[in-house]
Amino acid sequence: MIMHATKTALAILVVAMAFALGVSVCYAAATPSDGKIAVVNQTTVTRHDLDREMKMVALKLSQQGRHLNAEELKRYEGNIRETLINRALLLQQVESEKITVRDSQVAQALNKFKAGFKDETLYQGALNQMGYTEARLKDQIKNGLAIKELIDKKVTHGISVSDGQVRAFYDEHPDIFHRPERVKASHILIQVPEDADEAKKAEALASIQSLKQRIDNGEPFANLAMEYSDCPSKAKGGDLGFFTRGQMVQPFSEAAFSLQPGQVSDVVETRFGYHLIRVTERQAAQQLAFNDVKEDISIRLRRQQEEKMVGEYIEKIKEKADIQRFPM
Asked: Which of 45, 115, 130, 134 minimizes the C-alpha distance to 324?
């Protein structure tokens, strides 16, 4: 259930824009402090910066159905500090290259982000839970766009992928294009803390059982998910998209794959709490045709080149930088 934390520089751009991935975070950060964890030339990176970024990572993971507790997330801290260091270096390069971002670009990106929320209340709730103001969010968006422009200008502008490279990749990696059986499902989660006593567990179980009764009585699953679920997927009515058997914890996976489209499970217990699962579509295993994946392959090959070139660019900058790291 754990997504490997990327060490590539392009992760900076992903994290900078990661706000658009959901509405809440299953992560309890340590009490923020302004203690230094790194100094990059004259730029200080604080523990507060790291904790905020940890919440962003938790958000990204939870949107993929990967709910990690604070101890599991702590394993990401080293890589995330390096991401913050890399971002500081790139923003310093943005300044030296005199790259600017227009207010209209920021506004367009912000509007696109806000469009992912059902209403203003959910949007403001996301900002509050992340410890952001809209002004802070605009700054993050502006920085992300500026870094992207820097990368486009200085690093990746000459990248190209030929049709021959795309076809060769498809022919040489047939296993990648075998798609196992998968289902599309939504869920409602009533979260149960790991240290919950029996009374708390009983309360959570009663809550999910009540929701199951309401669904059986005809209330829309998505509406109840948006109102009661403790998972960030609530913003989309509990929709988790498609997943294969190995992508979810075993009890959840077994329940989901036992359902036919339109069916709702009984209460399912996992280490995260109690779930109700509704399957909306099933797809049998299949070998994907070249024409169906050639665009994805082209994007993948281009991204690989970008990651390599951006990584090399950052390493070159680091050679000339004064970087100090402090205990976390």
From this structure: 45
Q: Tell me the torsion sign for CA atoms 295, 301, 302, 304.
A: positive
> How far is residue 51 CA from its own chain's centroid?
16
**Which residues does residue 274 pair with via DSSP β-bridges, in sequence order?**
190, 269
Q: Which positions ≥6 away from 172 have C-beta within 8 Å?
A: none
- Put simply, whether the predicted model's pTM sits higher than 0.85 gets the answer no
Tens-place pLDDT, residues 191-219: 998 788 999 999 999 999 999 999 999 99
- Phi, psi for residue 94 in degrees, rounded to 5: -55, -45
Q: Residue 201 in contact with residue 244, Cβ under 8 Å?
A: no
User: What 3-state DSSP class applies to 23?
Assistant: coil
Start-to-end CA distance of the chain, whole Å, equals 25
Please give the Cα distance from 227 to 230 (Å, whole number). 9
Angle between helices 77-96 and 47-63 (to 10 degrees): 110
